[in-house]
Design a protein that fits this description.
The protein is α+β, with helices and mostly antiparallel strands. It is built from 17 helices and 15 strands. About 65% of the residues lie in helices and about 15% in strands. A six-stranded antiparallel beta sheet has the order 5-4-3-8-7-6, with helices on both faces. It has a five-stranded mixed beta sheet with strand order 10-12-13-15-14, with helices on one face. It has a two-stranded antiparallel sheet with strand order 1-2. Helix 5 runs antiparallel to helix 6, helix 7 packs antiparallel against helix 8 and helix 12 runs antiparallel to helix 17. The termini are far apart.
């Protein structure tokens, strides 16, 4: 008896193995792989899966082994596998159709009714597992469901049989092999799930490779010169194990690394016809059977900026059929990252150029403004205090000489403060006892742009102290903050500031009478991201900003 049961168990595994083999062959096709890996399948795709597993279940009846008026088969295995993997639209039809088929081909059979009921039950049970159980537990739930369904079949055989003795003989002979055979459900589920996992793993590996390459190449894109692009090609070639990697623009080869690179030492080599085609169409070009200069595999991917082709990434192999789907997907992702890096690099360069141009333009507006006021003060002193006028001329000469030597660079804050002291000395000589300028400076070591503080002091004197009918003071403080920033404040005791002027300053609509104030505000925003903070005091005005 045990020998017979062993043989029947082997027969169950053989038929399950046949189903497993057919599924394996199907999983090697791209169309079947797409259906398996899709999160949301179309109705036609679900109908195809339902038909497939229904055929498996029906055919298992025909391939079953007759034992004492019953059939040893893998119908339950097919129904449960399909239902658990693909849901109710596969499990329930497969269970009902295969169960009815088993019942109709042997209406008076001892196990027909039991097989009908258990097959339909298997379809609904598989559907419940698909909906209510996490995918990672499908394998074990599938085996458990198989055991339950086969045990149910054995119980129903005894219940519905008119011959109790015969029913018990059938159960003793086929029960154990059929129950143990349900292990095959786990194997089938694992096979199909591994395809999805394998694709996810490959995609993850290719994404990781693309990101690794992007991280390695990012510093070179920021430099944006030919040598940097050559370094980028070297990194891509090493990581993809390609024979040649090249980057082009829309007309010429910018960088070429690999076999034959001695022919590309000079820039501006023209791109070939295939590259021109990729640039013109914006579509990738793949050739696995190329015959050009010892290269047989080629992948050309357009590089895009603002949805416009600006160049291509080219990967060559000497061996044929090296451009596999995984490499193609990785290269597409990499080209998108490279396109983004090139676009960001270009934007950063444009931003830097614009900032530098705007910075220089703003400084050029300040210098004549200051020079006019300084010369006006000196011309007044020449007639009444020539010695002091000569000293102020020397101070002005030092100030202008320093300013000419430091047109657009940062200078030490102490040097900037010396410029302010020179200016304050000129203005104090001009206004006499009406103006007092005081300094409260911490011992800080930092750098600021030239002519950042002086225009604010000039504004405080000309628009705060000068219109007042009483003497006033301008206080310049430089204080180190706890967060390592430095706060610079210019406070005066003059006539104060019109609140409307503060609003215009932040709106960028200030008029030409306060050009120095506006320029400083704009330069601070360009350099530090935040402009002036202006407060109208009870008596006077306070202007402050932070540097870091």
């Amino acid at each position: 008896m045990y020998t017979e049961q062993l043989m029947m168990l082997i027969a169950v595994f053989e038929r399950a193995a046949l189903m497993l083999m057919l599924l394996f062959l199907l999983t090697r096709t791209r169309s079947f792989q797409k259906i398996i890996t899709k999160p949301n399948r179309k109705p036609i795709e679900m109908a195809m899966m339902s038909l497939l597993f229904t055929l498996f279940a029906v055919m298992s009846t025909y391939t079953g082994i007759e034992v004492d008026g019953s059939l040893v088969n893998v119908r339950i295995i097919a129904v449960l596998s399909g239902g658990i993997l693909f849901g109710p639209w596969v499990g329930i039809p497969a269970g009902i159709i295969s169960g009815l088929h088993r019942y109709l081909i042997d209406l008076d059979g001892a196990t027909s009714t039991a097989c009908l009921i258990s097959s339909i039950f298997a379809g609904f049970l598989a559907s419940w597992i698909h909906v209510g159980v996490d995918k990672k537990h499908y394998t074990w739930y599938g085996i458990l469901a198989g055991v339950i369904c086969e045990v149910l079949t054995m119980v129903l055989i005894v219940v519905f049989s008119d011959d109790y003795e015969q029913a018990m003989v059938i159960v003793r002979h086929i029960g154990l092999p059929m129950i143990l055979g349900t292990v095959s459900i786990g194997l089938i589920i694992k096979l199909v799930q591994d395809i999805d996992d394998e694709k996810d793993w490959i995609a993850a590996q290719q994404a990781k490779l693309a990101l690794d390459i992007a991280n390695k190449t990012l510093p070179y894109f920021r430099q944006n010169d030919r040598q940097s692009l050559i370094a980028v090609c070297q990194i891509i070639r090493l990581d993809t194990q390609a024979d040649v990697v090249a980057i082009t623009d829309t007309t010429s080869v910018l960088a070429y690394v690999g076999i034959g690179q001695e022919n590309y030492l000079e820039p501006h080599n023209k791109i070939n016809e295939m590259t021109e085609q990729a640039v013109a169409t914006g579509k990738q070009i793949i050739s696995n059977n190329l015959d050009a200069h010892d290269f047989h595999s080629l992948l050309i991917i357009p590089l895009m900026e603002n949805n416009v082709v600006t160049g291509t990434l080219k990967i060559f192999y000497r061996e044929p059929y090296q451009i596999k789907s995984s490499l193609r997907e990785m290269a597409v992702g990499l080209s998108q990252l490279i396109s983004t890096q090139m676009e960001v690099s270009r934007i950063e360069q444009l931003k830097t150029m614009a900032s530098k141009a705007e910075f220089s333009a703003l400084q050029s507006k300040i210098n004549p403004h200051f020079l006019f006021n300084a010369l006006n003060a000196i011309s007044t002193l020449i007639r009444i205090r020539p010695q002091q006028a000569r000293e102020l001329i020397a101070k002005l000469a030092d100030f202008l000489r320093f300013n000419l030597d430091h047109t657009d660079e940062l200078i030490d804050i102490q040097e900037e403060l010396q410029q302010v002291r020179d200016y304050a000395a000129i203005e104090q000589a001009r206004f006499g006892p009406k103006l007092t300028v005081s300094f409260d400076i911490d011992d800080v070591q930092t750098c600021v742009p030239s002519l950042l503080i002086q225009p604010l002091v000039e504004n405080a004197i000309l628009h705060g102290i000068q219109p007042a009918s009483y003497p006033g003071e301008v206080l310049i403080t430089v204080k180190k903050q706890q967060d390592d920033r430095v706060k610079i404040t210019i406070r005066d005791t003059g006539v104060g500031i019109d609140p409307a002027l503060i609003d215009k300053l932040h709106q960028g609509t200030i008029d030409s009478t306060s050009i120095g104030l506006m320029n400083v505000h704009q330069r601070l925003k360009l350099l530090y991201g935040a402009g002036l903070e202006i407060t109208a005091l009870t008596k006077g005005t306070e202007m402050s900003f932070f540097i870091h």
